[in-house]
Design a protein that fits this description.
6 helices; globular; single chain; about 140 residues; Arc Repressor Mutant, subunit A
Length: about 140
């Protein structure tokens, strides 16, 4: 098999291209691609537990903690103890993050729509099926 035919390489190359395009779009906001997706996830579910956010964005807790430290430093999120279990921490958006909600949500939909427009309905169904199959592998 030729290197160019390696599925892992092909998926990685496509992901890097998508990430580069997204990075260029979120850079004016002072965000990394990962921070952008974290905020998008929080716009969907503000006040989520750290463990739930880690699952939602497919990051381990250690990596997520560092990302949240930076978002908190930049005044976009804050950690608060859960009122029912003070050991549990919830992540909340700040007013600064809320002020960006409309712009970042629109950017998210435009960016995602641009990539989806490359696929017809059947290609999208197959793509989601293949990605799901690859993600479900437990090695």
């Amino acid at each position: 098999m030729l290197f160019k035919d390696c599925l892992c390489f092909q998926v990685g190359r496509a992901a890097r291209k998508m990430s580069k395009i997204t990075r260029e779009k979120v850079a004016p906001y002072g965000l990394t691609t990962t921070q952008f997706f974290l905020l998008t996830a929080l716009y969907e579910e503000d006040g989520i537990f750290i463990s739930g956010l880690a699952r939602k964005v497919a990051l381990d807790k250690a990596t997520l903690t560092g990302m949240l430290d930076r978002l908190e430093r930049d005044g976009l999120t804050e950690r608060r103890a859960d009122p029912e279990d003070r050991r549990a921490i919830r992540i909340h958006l700040t007013e600064k993050a809320e002020a960006l909600r409309d712009e970042l949500t629109e950017l998210y939909h435009e960016n995602n729509g641009m990539f989806l427009a490359l696929l017809d309905q059947e290609e999208r169904r197959i793509f989601e099926q293949v990605v799901g199959k690859i993600e479900s592998v437990d090695l």
